[in-house]
Every structure is written in C-alpha cells, then in structure tokens.
Design goal:
homodimer, Rossmann fold, 7-stranded parallel beta sheet, 2 domains, alpha/beta
C-alpha cells in the first residue's frame, strides 16, 4: 500500500471512539457511514470530540492518530496544551460557516435598519426613517476570508456591495473587489460602511481592531463580530461608542465572554449582542455529522483530512 | 404622427410640473433628463407629486394628461377619490422594491435569530442557542409577487429556501418553487416557516391573513409584513401571539398606523415593529428620480408608462 501525506490507507475498518457527555446516535451513524467502526478509546485509531472542553478530554492512547474537534475556533485547545505533534488534529473549520455567515448578515442588516432601537421602542417614531440605510451598494470589509467570509460573500451578492477582503497577507479572495493585508486595516477604515470580523483568534489577531483602527474608520461604520471577542479591543470599542465615532456594533462574541451583567456594552441602543449563538444548536450536530462522515471516509481512504490544524500556526 | 396606446408623441418638449412642499432639485433634474420642460401647473402636460397627501393636491387643469404619484401603494389616493379616468396615473410601483425587500429579509432573519429578545437583554443568555434557527432550507411563503416579492426572491437565493408564491390567481412566479392563489392561503399555512406579506392593499386583500389563516399556520411561523397593515387582522394576530401559536412577527406596517402607544403589539418580545421605514429616506428621492426620468422619457416618446394605475382595479 502506498503511503501518502494523510497516512496509510486501512485494509480493515479503523476504530473511531466518540468522546461526548452523552450518547450521540447521529455521530455514531456518521462514523459508520464514513466506513469506520465504533469502539472503545483504548483501541481507537481516531477520536471524535463533541461538547467536551479541553480539561475534560481523557488522555489519548498512542493508537489514536487523528482527533476531530467539534469547533471551528480551537484557541482554547491550544491554550490548554492539548494539541500536540503526535497525531493529526482537525477542527470543524468551515462546518458552521453558513449558519454563522447568516447570523453575520442578520446583524449587519439589523444595524443598517436600527433594530436595536426599534426592538426596544414602545412608541411609533417616524423619524426613524431618517436614520436607517440600505445595505445595497455599501462597502463591506470582511476581515478573514475563511469559510465564514466566503459564505458571507455569497450571501452579499444580491446587494451589489463592494467587498474589501482583509487577510493576513492580503491574498486575492474570490468574489472580493479588493484585497488588503491585516496591516492595511487602517486603509480600509475610511472606505467601509461595514466591518465584519470573521478571522481566527490567534496571538497575532488579538485586538486586531483597536483604538487606532477604530479611529481610522468612518463615523457610520457598523462593526460585526462573529469570530472571537478578543479580536476587538472591547475598551476601545466602548470608547468609540461613547464618542459616537461608530454607527454601532453587532456582537455575537465578546471579550470577556460571557459578557458580565452591568458591562457598559449592554447599555448601548446601537449595540446588538447575541450570546455566541451564530451557530444555532439545531444545526450544530447535523452539520458536524456531515463533516465526520467525510473526514472518516478520507481517513479510511488515506486521503488528506478537511480542516487540518497546524500545531505551529495555532489554528 | 401615429397615435398609440400611450398617447401622441410630442413634437415639442411637454411641460411637467412638480408638486412638492419644497424645491426638489433632483426631481427637476430628473424631469429635464427625461426630455421634458419644467413649468407652471396651468400649462402642465404632466405632474409629478412628491411628499404631498391627496388632500393637499390642487385641482388639476384639463391639460394634465399624466400624474406620477410618489408611492407604490396608492390606496389613500383611491380612498380620497383623486384617481380619475380623465388622465393616466402612475404609481411608484417597483421603485422602492429593493429597499423594502431588504428590510423584509432583515425582519425575517431578526425573527429567526430572536433579535427582538436579544436587543432588549441586559444579561448573557446561552440558552438562546436552543431557540434560534437558520434561514437556510426553510420554506418561505411570499404573498404578492410584485416588485418586492421578486426582489426578495433574488435576495433569498443564497439561502436555498423553498419559495411558495401566493398571488391572486396563483400564476407561476419566476424563482418560486410552487405557486398558490390567495384562496389557497390555508394550504400554504402548514408548510411555511416564514409568511411574508407583500401584496397591495385593496378591498380584496383586507384581512387576507385573519384568524382562520393564522390557525392554519405552523406554530413556528414568523410573519413579516412590509406591505400595508390592513392585510393582517391585527386582533387575530395579537390573539395568536398570546396563544403562542406563531413564532412572532416583524411588522413595518400596522393597522392602525401609526400604532398607538399602549397597543398590545408593543409588548411582545417576539414582535419587531419598525415605523414604516422599509424604504429609508436616504434612498427615496434618488430612486423616485430614476423612475421620473424613465417615465418622462416614455411620456415624451409616446410609449407605455411604468407602473400604470388601473382606476377600476384600485391599484
């Protein structure tokens, strides 16, 4: 049998063990559909993790050559020192991209249409019509062009917006009108009516949007964060909101998270906070199951796995 | 000169008079760009109306052979008896379709994602993740397949929803998966996760969505109205909300309108009310100006005008 990047193909079905707090028939079915057998951890060739935090992960035997993690962002697994070089690790990168992109678009439109104000209103305010805007033909900067960014670009097509893609190195992104590197974020600021944060949380992206970047942005910018709270400097955002130098923000993630009661972000009418729910529970398991089936199939066939984690890059 | 359906072509530029409470340079420019001259009402061949209610419209001289009204819904002009058979009348039908469709989609997504609750929250509620849903692959019934319905169908494409078009006679609608007549609304009810009301307000559509239609709908239906309040029986909707037999509603229009302080609709977390602002002021005049130019051009050329009003049909 020829070796390849992804390891030897199996002549017999490999054993996959599911680590989850309770029985997950759909994940079991997904493993079997991919061509593997379910079995105990001690005999496992691979492990699928679901609703288990890094601290609750049992020690993995040497036989485990691949671990499928359940989330797209895996910084907590790096922080816990879980991710090693001894085996392959895959994230759920891209699995939840479409639900999250949907949530992102919903927050953007809610900003344009001032739903934060109207949802709390108890009186008809016709003047609201002066304050709202259409998304059509605005300029949208998307920071991070992974699965979420790509799904969002597709969902934005009907609105004829100008899309500015911001990636680490400024590579060209399909569907984007212009591309910028992360270091050019201050050049994007004066152009964008929407800034969408959809990049992974790494040491390099912490406070990517800080006081300086916020100062460079238009006064009518709506900032949407569906990635991780740490990418935005919360104190700087609160100050910009107090100063009225941004239109507002839609935040599905915050720093700290959960956002504590009494935090100033709760008090702004022009901030819509959702409690890290861009990926609704109803679609989490079915979407992960699809990925499990595909990655198990690739594992069995000795092919490259989807969403491999680079232990050195941190995502 | 040959006559045609739309009247004789002019050998000299016709005179258009603008009726508005204040000077509107962009509308004046639009008239001239269409090939007409501006002039006083007494000499006018045509009139463009902007921000003027039926009661404030001056008597029109016989020379006026065409009136361009500023709104898509013209039931108030019919109610006032303004629209006659003596000349042609055009509405702004289709002009604001895209901004309104945008607002409609924003309200739909805000319903799926429970923004009505989250915008008012002052505390992190992780359980929210159990209550939200994705729009992708849901079934969306669109009542009315005019400009708004068509624009909405385009904007819904990325979400792979099933679209049920409901029109007066159940004609086939491009982009819809199935078509129903208004009388079949009770057949649509059990299917649709979203019911969008985007039909003109006429005698025939009053309370199109009443107690019976609401009872036929799924318990997780989100109802969005961007047309006119009268299409929904408000009392029946309030009762359905109290009974919990609908997921909620996004209402840009209400009956009565403006919705009075203290009205029960204000008190539901799962109702998002926006004060008839689907068409933001910032785009109203530019979009109308485009239509004015096009209709003036057609008037000058003796061609059919866009969005002609049928005095007998009532829209």
């Amino acid at each position: 049998m020829p070796g390849d990047k992804a390891g030897k193909p199996h002549s017999m079905a490999p054993v996959v063990h599911i680590i989850a707090p309770d029985d997950r028939p759909s994940l079991r079915a997904a493993v079997e559909e991919g061509g593997a057998e379910l079995g105990p951890l001690a005999q496992a060739d691979a492990v699928v993790v679901f609703r288990t935090s890094p601290g609750d992960l049992p020690e993995l035997p040497d036989s485990v050559r691949w671990v499928q993690l359940p989330s797209a962002g895996v910084e907590s697994w790096f922080a816990a020192g879980t991710i090693d070089h001894d085996r392959r690790w895959t994230s759920a990168g891209g699995v939840y991209a479409r639900p999250v992109a949907e949530h992102c678009l919903a927050l953007m439109m809610a900003g344009d249409r001032e739903f934060g104000v109207f949802a709390q209103a108890r009186s008809w305010d016709e003047d609201g019509r002066n304050r709202t805007r259409v998304l059509e033909r605005l300029t949208v900067a998307i920071v991070g062009a992974g699965g979420i960014g790509r799904a969002l670009i597709e969902m934005l097509q009907p609105f004829r917006v100008e899309i500015l893609a911001v990636t680490r190195r400024g590579r060209e992104v399909e569907g984007a009108d212009r591309s910028f590197s992360a270091g050019q974020l201050d050049q994007v600021g004066p152009l964008a009516h929407h800034v969408v944060v959809a990049a992974p949380a790494t040491n390099g992206t912490r406070h990517l949007v800080g006081a300086g970047e916020l100062a460079a942005m238009r006064d009518d910018v709506w900032i949407t964060n569906v990635a991780r709270g740490s990418l935005i400097d919360t104190d700087a955002l609160v100050q910009a909101l107090r100063d009225g130098t941004v239109l507002g923000a839609g935040l599905d993630v915050t720093d700290p998270e959960p956002l504590p009661d009494g935090h100033p972000l709760w008090d702004f009418d022009n901030v819509i906070i959702t409690p890290h729910i861009a990926n609704p529970e109803s679609v989490e398991e079915p979407l992960l199951a699809e990925r499990v089936t595909e990655n198990v199939r690739r594992f069995v066939a000795g092919e490259d796995l989807l969403a491999p984690i680079d232990p050195d890059a941190g995502y």
